[in-house]
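Support request, please re-run this one:
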Amino acid sequence: MTDSPLKDYYAERYQGLERQMLSELKDRLIKKREKLTGFFLNSSREALNMAAKVQEEEKNKLAYMSFSWLNISLIENKPCLQIDFYDYDWIYGYPWARSYMPADFLFEGFEAFSRDALDEKYFVRGSLQPAEIRTLFWGTVDKMLYVLAGQLKYILPMITMLKEFGQLEREEWFYITFGTYIDWHERMAAMTPELDLDDIDANEETRLRRFEDKVFHGKVFEVLNLNQCRFTNCLFDKCVFAGTILDDAFFSTCRFRDVEFKDVSLRGTAFLENKFLRVKFTGSDEADANIMTSDSGEYYDPIKFVQCYLREVTANYDLTGREEINCLSWDCSW
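Re-run finished. Output below.
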């Protein structure tokens, strides 16, 4: 944006209004997470049932399920997301099934925001027209979608647990994505082949992977990106996580014995029914990251320990004070 009345107006007024609106949107979506989850899962069930009927006739395999915002829907005053089902050739072709879901929930505060942004008391009409201000709205909508994405990364993975999802035939590599149509898309969930953490290729994708019933003994997880990975019923014995990214990772019914988490990023990490014996968390100050990290709306839940047993656990932040922890919930048998 070159020097202009519009640039001055953006810096002096619009940017502040935008930041306030995005903050309120984030708070509203967090507060309504449960309702938002139900809404997306119900819409996904309908779309999955439709896709199953198409797949039965056309024999397409599923590689991508994408949720895309349509700019045209806002122009038509019918905000909606487009749900597409693709095979491996999706970048070069067309979806083999398509559905839609309303997105009015995203714009509860947008009318008041746009009214304030177009208030003539705050700009000189002779040098700046309302139509010029409206051109800023598209960038704001993009930021709103990033705020929504911060919540959907905790919601869309649940789609893979729906019985309607299980009826579809999928490719070996499957992803759920969210973004804007024919523009940016972020991967929100995945079902991928098993990954051997002891033999990782240089260009191997380590995010969004799943590990079940694994035993890691004396393993050093060093400078790995395990963002949004899921570990189920795994044993970590005499292991070290050093400089590793575990943002939004999920550990369920795992056991940690003589383990150190050193300089590990734990934003949004969740531990469900895990057992910890002689475990140290050191050098990480990101565990309380209930934050929107930038104007783009990147968001992480606080670290969670739900129904976990902790014995001889030390950390540079308070664990036992977290209401999610129930240290006496079950027997710590190894």
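Helices lie at 5-31, 33-58, 71-75, 110-117, 130-134, 137-155, 163-166. The longest helix spans residues 5-31.
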